[in-house]
Model the fold of this input.
Amino acid sequence: MAKATRWLKGFFRSEIFHPGEPEALAQAPREAAFVARALRLSRGQRVLDLCCGTGRHSFELARRGVSVTGVDATPAYLAEARARLKGRNNPAFVLGDMRKLPFGEEFDAVINLWTSFGYFEDPADDLRALKGAFRALKPGGLFLIDLVDADWNRRHAQAKSWFRRSDGTLVLEELKLREGRDPGLSNTWTVLAPDRAPERASFFVRGYDRPRLCSLLRRAGFRVGKVWGGLDGAAHRAGSRRLVVLARRPG
Done:
């Protein structure tokens, strides 16, 4: 748990990575519309937003009449999400570890979006997380997971690259691929903001291409269904940057 705690507290904090940035918020309505179509959601259904961050997708789905519970391990993200509720009770936000979900057959669907999966050093923890999502679903319930395709990283990842956020902050990304039996990606961000000292944090994310992710989903008990190349509904093909998989709990 010590290694997991380091990346949790080191990288997933607003000074380094903020899931509620304007760029992410701007995309959320379109992404939630795709999620609602893919899952065939209707008013009154219950959805678990696993690793919800500041709740940008949770709020969009709640506006469609879906009852949403968001779970995340970062208290600051959840505090920001709750501040947006302004007295409403939907979505609901819960602090929790995706490997230890307390739910049993409660949800019509579970979503895990924007590469919120694969950060644990022990690959068995990834399977535990998927089994928890499986248990949380009602029989026949659907699971939608979205992450960067490891095959795209193999082809396109750059050792060093810069990007600028809307607030003017500069971020240097330094990537190192790990191949072998348990491939993954080590990523170090250096954040340069005009009003504070430089900040630096690292994380590791396990590499999942289509065969590896689908195999793990089946090991967790799911039946794998449709696969897309993005949250815009594009077909998944060789060269797709994202890997979006729909799976079902039999029942």
